[in-house]
Amino acid sequence: MILKYQYLGLFLLTIFANILIAINMQYTAQVYHSINSPNFYNIQLFIVIIFLSFLSFLLIINSKKNPSSIIGGVLFFTVLVPFFYFLHLENNFSFENFYLHLILVLFSFYLFKIIADSKIKISFIRTINFQSIFLEYFLFSFMLFGCFLLIYSFGESMSFSFFDIYDRRIETKTEFSQNRSLNYYNSLFAGLMVPFAAIYAAARNKYIFFFLSIFSSIICFGVFGGKGVLLSPFLAFFFTKFFLLLNLNGYKFLLICITIFCIFCLIEIFLISTGYLNLYFFRRMFYVPAKLSFWYFEYFSNNQLFYMSDSIFGQFFTSNSPDYDKARTIGGNYLGNYQSHANSNIWSSAYADFGFIGIPIFSMLAGLITKFINEVYKIKQSIIIIVYSFFVGLVWAQTSLNTSLLSNGIFFGILLMLFVPKEQNLKKSEI
Predict the structure, then answer these.
(1) What is the Cα 380 distance to its own chain's centre?
(2) Are 299 and 329 in contact (CB under 8 A)?
(3) Confidence of residue 429 (pLDDT cuts 50, 70, 90)
(4) Is residue 17 over pLDDT 70?
């Protein structure tokens, strides 16, 4: 009887969370994007809320506390759920034109989940059990050396102003396109080591690494102009502490976090009459990815596919050489500026490369990578690996799978997981 009431309460929580997401999506569409969205009180939206709530409920009760539940939770709640609501808000949406996209993305998500959570063991994984002191020495030395190298290389052009960040981004992206070594170094330092140091600080109560992560993020901001890198130490640190406090599987944990976040967004909107949380965080993490998915599906349904011609893998699939990559193509056609990098998630990018067949193929590849991370976690039993998986999910929610591996540091992050010390106090039942 108690279990029945717990399930009922959990299902009501999923409905409540989806209602909050839908309200915030509608507010964002109307205020910041001038979309005259349909009336919130209608049967179509009610059906979508119940459907997504039911899927959320099933994911929560059938998942364990492991990296795949974190990565899957991020993809589900920041890509799939907002995309369903965005299509309801979009005036130009035609279900007849997009029902295959909806079905295939949903199918591919579950294909990803099945592969990531499969019981097939990967026997070739070999890890190195570093003592904590060696990993800490490596982190400390690498972070200090990274800051010194950035200051030495870009000290004269560094700027900590928020007014010229877009100019700095364009300049650094031009440099990255001409110097791949610099691009990969940025992904290793800013994309991996900065949040990883903060995660380690929170998990092991080594606060010097938190301050070192903040200092490094400030240096990266001064050089590259990325706002996200400024936020990443705080997000990584408090996400780790909150995760340790609640001790839940990824889907349930993220549902609670998103519910609390959406409540604060609506309190600010309706009681304080401002919308900074919605504008700077909800809009960027939920609404914009959904809008980009719509643009990708719409554009590449009517134009030539890329076949990865904007990457080093393109030579295996096509001889075409486009003037702009996928992100700039979408930026030019929908934002009127080919310098805008309108990156989208792994499914939209896969569709832009290979059409419908690309979505399940890249889902399987993502599932295999996540399965590998799960197996490393079973060996290491470290909370650090689970929390870093949150950043893997965020990257996949905002860029293509192949780009994420090197340009966003996922490959380096997986290598670093192999050196994380084992945890001795984690119960086997939690794995």
Answers:
(1) 23
(2) yes
(3) very low
(4) yes
Tens-digit pLDDT profile for residues 168-188 = 676 766 666 666 677 677 778
SS (H, E, C) 58-126: HHHHCCCCCHHHHHHHHHHHHHHHHHHHHHHHCCCCCHHHHHHHHHHHHHHHHHHHHHHCCCCCCCCCC
Q: What is the 3-state secondary structure (H, E, C) of the chain?
A: CHHHHHHHHHHHHHHHHHHHHHHHHHHHHHHCCCCCCCCCCCHHHHHHHHHHHHHHHHHHHCCCCCHHHHHHHHHHHHHHHHHHHHHHHCCCCCHHHHHHHHHHHHHHHHHHHHHHCCCCCCCCCCCCCCCHHHHHHHHHHHHHHHHHHHHHHHHHHCCCCCCCHHHHHHHHHHHHHHCHHHHHHHHHHHHHHHHHHHHHHHHHCCHHHHHHHHHHHHHHHHHHCCHHHHHHHHHHHHHHHHHHHHCCCHHHHHHHHHHHHHHHHHHHHHHHCCCHHHHHHHHHHHHHHHHHHHHHHHHHCCCCCCCCCCCCCHHHCCCCCCCCCHHHHHHHHHCCCCCCCCCCCHHHHHHHHHHHHHHHHHHHHHHHHHHHHHHHHHHHCCHHHHHHHHHHHHHHCCCCHHHHHHCCCHHHHHHHHCCCCCCCCCCHHHC
Query: What angle, 0 to 180 degrees and rounded to 10, lies between the N-to-C axes of helices 383-396 and 67-75?
Result: 20
Q: How confident is residue 430, by pLDDT bands cut at 50, 70 and 90?
A: very low
Q: What is the pTM of this model?
A: 0.89
| 264 within 8 A of 274, measured Cβ to Cβ | no
Percent of the chain predicted with pLDDT > 70:
86
d(CA 330, CA 342): 6
Is residue 325 over pLDDT 70? yes
Determine the residue type at 62.
N
